[in-house]
Amino acid sequence: xxxxxxxxxxxxxxxxxxxxxxxxxxxxxxxxxxxxxxxxxxxxxxxxxxxxxxxxxxxxxxxxxxxxxxxxxxxxxxxxxxxxxxxxxxxxxxxxxxxxxxxxxxxxxxxxxxxxxxxxxxxxxxxxxxxxxxxxxxxxxxxxxxxxxxxxxxxxxxxxxxxxxxxxxxxxxxxxxxxxxxxxxxxxxxxxxxxxxxxxxxxxxxxxxxxxxxxxxxxxxxxxxxxxxxxxxxxxxxxxxxxxxxxxxxxxxxxxxxxxxxxxxxxxxxxxxxxxxxxxxxxxxxxxxxxxxxxxxxxxxxxxxxxxxxxxxxxxxxxxxxxxxxxxxxxxxxxxxxxxxxxxxxxxxxxxxxxxxxxxxxxxxxxxxxxxxxxxxxxxxxxxxxxxxxxxxxxxxxxxxxxxxxxxxxxxxxxxxxxxxxxxxxxxxxxxxxxxxxxxxxxxxxxxxxxxxxxxxxxxxxxxxxxxxxxxxxxxxxxxxxxx
Length: 484
Fold this sequence. Notes:
Oligomer: single chain
Number of strands: 2
Strand order of the largest sheet: 1-2
C-alpha cells in the first residue's frame, strides 16, 4: 500500500485541517474499504429489517448468511491475498508489470473455483431454497473477488477512484434495498441480498475496469504467481492464520452451548457474535493510522537506511539512519497505542450507553467491553506483525500470528467450557501474544545488522521451483499444440 500511502501522506502534510481530515477519510476506505463498508451495510440492513418488523426467522437468516459470506470469504482468500501482495510489489519493483494483470485473472479463477466447490459441499444437504443459495453464493463470490482485487488496487495510486467505487456501490445497494423492502414490501433476507449483490457487483466491475486500464498488458501467464506460494510458504500460511486468528474465538463459541442452528444450515452464536461484531469496529482506527502515519513516515526512514547500505555509504551514516528509523518507529507505535486506547475508552462509553437500545443484554455488553479492551492489544499485535513483514521476517511473523490464532481458539474454548466466561479467551490471547510479539520484534531489531550483512548468501543463485517447472512444461505443451 506504499503507493497510496505516500499520496495520502502528501495530503495529510498539507496545513489545512480539512485536507488532513480528508486524508484520514480516504485512508479509512483504502485501508479497510470493503470490510468497513460491509460492516456498515450489515448493521444498517439489520436495523432496517427490525424497523420494518421483519420476522425473527428472516433477521436470523440474514445475519447468519451474511456472517458466513463475510468470514469464510476471508478465510478462503487469506493465503492468496498475502502472496499476491508480495508478488505485485516485486513485479512492479523489477518493472515487469506485464505479469500483474494476468496474475489477477488467475487468482480470481482459482478463488472462484474453490469457492464454488466449497459452496456446493456446504449447501448440499441444506433445506434452503435454490434461489437463496444462489444469491448468497453470488455475494460470497463477489466478496472473495473484492478481497483479491484490493491487493491490485493498491498499485493504482489513485485513492479517489477507490473511494468513489466503494461509495457508489454502497449507495446502489442501499437504494435497492430500500426499494425492494419499503416500496415493494419484500421484507425478507432475500430482498436485502439482491440489493447487496447488485451494489457489490458494481464495485467489483469498476475495480476490475480500473485495474485493467492501468496495467493494460495481459501476457496470459495466469498462474505464474503460484510460484510465490512455493518460494514464500510462510506468507501463504500467515494469510490463513491471520484470518483464523481474527475469527477463531467465534468458531470456538460455535462449538459451545450458546450456538444456534439457523434453517438447519448455519451454525452461529448471536449471543457472542453480535457484541464481538460491534467491538471489532474499535480496531479500525489502528489500521487507518498504520497507513497514514506508520507506513508513510516510517517507510521513509526505512528506505533511507537500506538505501545507504545499497549505495555504499560510510558505516557511521548507516548507523545514523538506523537510529533514526528506530526513533520514528518507537514514536509512531506509541502514538498509535495512545490513539487506540482513546478509541477503546470512547467505544466503552458508547457501548454502555447505546447498545441496550439495540436489544443487547447486560451479559452481552460485558462481552463487548472485554473484547474492546482486547482489541487494544490486538491492534498493537497486528502492527508488530506488519512491521516484521516490512523487514521480511516471515517466519517470525508467522510464529507471532500463529500463537495468537492457537491461543485465541484454545483459551476461548477453555474459558467457555470450564468457567462459562465469554470474551476472556480473546482478551488473554491478545495480551499474551502481544508480550510475545514485543520480544520477537525487539530481538529482530537488535539483530538487524547481522540479518542484513551476514545472513544473506554471498552468491545468489536463482532456484527453479517445482511449480515453475510444471508451469514451463504446461506452457511448452500449449505452444506445441498451437504449432500443430
